[in-house]
Model the fold of this input.
Amino acid sequence: MLANLSKGFFITLEGIEGSGKSTQQQLLAKALTELGFAVLTTREPGGTALGERIRELLLDPSWLIAPAAELLLYAADRAQHLAMMVEPALSEGKVVICDRHADSLLAYQAFGRDLPRQLVETANQLATGGRAPDLTLLLDLDPVLGLARVETRGNRDRMENETLAFHRRVRAGFLAIAAEAPRRVKIIAANRSIAAIQQDLALEVLRHLGPGTPGPK
Ligand code: ADP
Done:
C-alpha cells in the first residue's frame, strides 16, 4: 500500500501482565486491515509451533526454572520466531504486530530477575540478529491493576504468580527502556478505557507508517 512498506513494519506491544496487550493487538490489527495493510499478529513466547511448546514450558506454574535457563528459553523462542515468522512476513511487506518481544526480556530478566543487563542484551542480540522493532508501544500500568485484571482469567500462569515487587521492578524496567529509546518506544497510559487506549495506539502507528497514510476510520 505504501512505498515505505516494501520492507514491512515491525510493531511490538510491551507491558506487564494485564496491561491490555492482546486486547489492543487485535483491535489494532483490525483497524490496519480495514485500512488495507497486510497484517500479521503474533506473540512471544509463541508464534511458531516450537515457540508455542516453549511457551507452555515457560508459563507452566508447576516448574521452578533457574533464571539463566529462563533467559535461554525465551531467547530460543525469539530466535525461532524471528527467523521463521517475523522476517518472512516483513520481507513480504506486512505489518507485524507482536505481543511482547526483546524489551520484555530486558524488563523481566534484567530488571525483574536481576540478571546482568549485558548478558540479557547479548541473549537478545543472538536471538534477533540485530533486528529491532520499528515502533514499540509500551502499555504502562500499575501492576496492582494489571494483576487484578488477569485474576479474572482464572488460573495464574508462572509469571503472573510472581510477587507484586517483581512486577513493580518489571514496570520500572519498561519505563527505563522507554526513557533510553524515546524515538522507538512510545509510552501509552493503560489505566484508561480500551477505546481511549486504542485511539492513541492507532494514531501513533499511523504517524510512524509515514506520510500519505489515510487517517483512522
Ligand atoms: P495482556 O495481554 O497485556 O496480559 P489482556 O489484553 O489479555 O492483557 O487483558 C487482560 C484483561 O484485562 C482481559 O480480561 C481484558 O479484557 C481486560 N482489559 C484489557 N484492557 C482493559 C482496559 N483498558 N480496561 C479494563 N480491562 C481491560
Summary: The mean pLDDT is 93. Helices lie at 21-34, 49-59, 67-91, 102-112, 117-128, 143-151, 164-180, 194-209. The first strand starts at residue 9 and ends at 15.
